[in-house]
């Protein structure tokens, strides 16, 4: 189990480094095409869907900012999953715990508050987050993120291993909670 945990974190860190490096290179030369969030880095239209285990290269900023759903699975592999989230003003991700899944979240737009702890009644780790912040959630930690800003909180999340079924789209937190109760 220790080997799988180390491998999971190595995969997450590699993907984070890749996304962060690509994002940093684009920040200096953003054009109006990226600011409208209608095109990815290759100039293709943003198509929000689960690209499955197919190779794909895309502008993660454009996809994250274009997502209007609470949760949209963007890429689901055997050992890793990327989802996009849009948390409405005053909304939250919802208190949750992933026993065997580690999670990385990156804020592309908005402001929020992260809370984590060893039990759902004791979320003693509390931090404020904003654009370009990263959140690392160890397996087994209870966690929640609240949108404390005045615009939707736009984040992408990387799970290792995958957390949601391929093709997952939840339009709202309520829809997400109902889907998870059926599993």
What is this structure's SSE topology?
Blueprint: H1 2-27, H2 32-35, H3 60-66, E1 71-76, E2 81-87, E3 96-97, E4 102-109, E5 112-117, E6 125-129, E7 134-137, E8 142-147, E9 153-160, E10 169-170, H4 173-181
Antiparallel strand pairs: 1-2, 1-10, 2-9, 3-8, 4-7, 4-9, 5-6, 5-8
Q: Can I get a quick summary?
A:
The chain is 25% helix and 30% strand. By secondary structure, it is of the alpha+beta class. It has a six-stranded antiparallel sheet.
What would your notes on this structure say?
This protein is of the alpha+beta class and 183 residues long. Helices cover 25% and strands 30% of the residues. It has four helices and ten strands; from the N terminus they run H-H-H-E-E-E-E-E-E-E-E-E-E-H. The strands form two sheets. It has a six-stranded antiparallel beta sheet. A four-stranded antiparallel beta sheet has the order 3-8-5-6, with no helix packed on it. The longest helix is centred in the N-terminal third of the chain and has 26 residues, at 2-27. The protein starts with a helix and ends with a helix. Mean pLDDT is 81; it is low at 17-38.
Distance between the termini: 24 Å
The total of helices stands at 4
The biggest sheet amounts to: 6 strands, antiparallel
**Number of E strands:** 10
What sort of overall outline do the alpha carbons produce when their principal axes are compared?
A: globular
Q: Portion of residues in helices?
A: 25-40%
Taking all Cα atoms into account, the compactness measure Rg is 16 Å
Category by helix and strand content: alpha+beta
| Overall average pLDDT | 81
Residue stretches low in confidence (pLDDT < 50, at least 5 long) are: 17-38
In which order are the strands of the major sheet placed?
7-4-9-2-1-10
| Percent range for β-strand residues | 25-35%
Order of helices and strands: HHHEEEEEEEEEEH
